[in-house]
């Protein structure tokens, strides 16, 4: 949460996403998403105080990981490979 709060402080001081990224605080994509959220919520207004941590946490939940389904390049040949395997042909021979 500290990183988000620090990035918000820097944004309120007028630093660009590139400048904040150069410090290594967080990446530009994350900063862009944070700036968009902060602008919508009014967090970039220096006259207002920063929101409490629980409010930040509620809005800035980490994205849910997507489950990648990698497909084998041999999938189209599955039946042929299974046939060879059942005939006792070695895997290295099939690979060659």
Question: What is the overall shape?
Answer: rod-shaped
Low-confidence stretches: none
Structural class: mainly alpha
What percent of the residues sit in helical stretches (DSSP H or I)?
40-55%
Per DSSP E runs of 2 or more residues, the count of β-strands stands at 0
Name the helix and strand elements from N-terminus to C-terminus, one letter apiece. Answer: HHHHHH
Write structural notes for this entry.
There is one protein chain. The protein has 96 residues and is mostly helical. It has a domain at 2-59. 54% of the residues lie in helices and 0% in strands. The protein has 6 helices and no strands. It has helices spanning 2-12, 17-22, 28-41, 53-59, 78-86, 91-95. Helix 1 (2-12) crosses helix 3 (28-41). It is rod-shaped, with a radius of gyration of 25 Å. It starts with a helix and ends with a helix. The mean pLDDT is 88.
């Amino acid at each position: 949460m500290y990183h988000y709060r620090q990035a918000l402080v820097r944004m309120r001081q007028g630093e660009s996403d590139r400048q904040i990224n150069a410090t290594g605080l967080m990446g530009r994509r994350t900063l862009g998403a944070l700036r968009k959220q902060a602008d919508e919520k009014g967090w970039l207004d220096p006259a207002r105080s920063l929101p409490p941590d629980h409010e930040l946490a509620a809005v800035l939940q980490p994205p849910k990981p997507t489950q990648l389904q990698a497909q084998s390049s041999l999938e189209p040949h599955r039946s042929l490979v299974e046939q060879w395997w059942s005939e006792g042909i070695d895997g290295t021979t099939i690979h060659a």
